[in-house]
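Below is how a single chain appears once it has passed through the pipeline. First comes the sequence as given, then the structure the pipeline wrote out for it. We keep one example in the README because the format questions we get most often are answered faster by looking than by reading.
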Amino acid sequence: MSEQLKDERKATLELNKLQKRLRRDVGQAISDFGMIEAGDKVMCCLSGGKDSYTMLDILLNLQRSAPVPFELIAVNLDQKQPGFPEHVLPEYLSSLGIEYHVIEKDTYSIVKEKVPEGKTTCGLCSRLRRGILYNFAEEHGVTKIALGHHRDDLLETLFLNMFYGGRLKTMPPKLKSDDGRNVVIRPLVYAREKDIERYAEARQFPIIPCNLCGSQENLQRQVVKDMLKAWDQEHPGRIESMFRAICNVSPSHLADPAIYDFERLEVDWRQGGESDVQDSQPSPAYERLDVLNL
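Resulting structure:
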């Protein structure tokens, strides 16, 4: 067997392995969080980046063998950024034979006008984009809006909120929009960014860079991303452990009285009775190590 054939076979095996892993991650997320139900019309929001391409690719793959029927449409928001290659996504989506829509809205000019030079444009840009996509979904009978955020995005958002917002929160796998009109899902919530990067490269997706905000230096998210990447390299398994923590929350061992009734717990203790809001978790075995600040 020639070296070229060996390389091609190796590349095929690697692609199949990545696809199976991502199929498993996405399928598990859909099952765990009830993301897609029979008869759903799912709108896949495509930016032209690796994450949204991968999300659409895996959902199309799963659709063929899903236990329930659902519809997929692809939607891209053309924000009129200078130099944006308008032909790339239509050509790619046409080759897939999927229904797609390109929404043309000049949010670029609005963002450049409203945001001072050198300031982060992501906040305003995302709000404008979200409103446009929500309106489109309602007008076209969409029941679920699928976004391409992955596991690493959730962890980055968690630390951004802690470091800069003083809140313990991240992006949920499934949510109802603030106006109550739409349900947003994140099918890649269990997928690792490094798997998505390798898959996108292997599938040779026509990646479109974001020239509006992606090139800004020293963004807070990039700082956090670099921190997590360093941890992943220096301490294998730490990222996985942190993500498990997001999925395994003990409200009684935090300090938010809005989600745990500490006052009632104190009253019940004084009365000598057992509180029905006490932690229902069994006492940990001594073999298990919990980190406490004593």
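The CA atoms of residues 51 and 256 lie 34 Å apart.

See the next section for the split statistics.
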